[in-house]
Design a protein that fits this description.
The chain is an alpha+beta fold. It has one domain. 36% of the residues lie in helices and 18% in strands. The protein has helices spanning 2-10, 32-41, 70-83, and strands at 22-23, 47-53, 56-62.
Length: 91
Amino acid sequence: MVEAAVLEAKNAPAGGPPEDAVFLPEGQELDGPLKRAIIDALPEDTTFGFNSRDGRTWMLVIGLGGSRDPEVTRAVLNTALASLGRPPLGS
């Protein structure tokens, strides 16, 4: 189920980030350590997708059946950023 949602999001027509996407803080890159920290922070049975538009990177946490909740995405991203000693969202 999660794989199908990821494939659907990956194959969606380009046009910008979805409304429920969460942008990384200004100046943050989705580098290797942050990707690993995000993976470690994901709730069970979820995955994440990301992309970049106009120099800004955004992400989504995707659950079973393709469910997406921006609050979950924010929590995962903030947990990952904190684990690396980086500033959280909105700071």
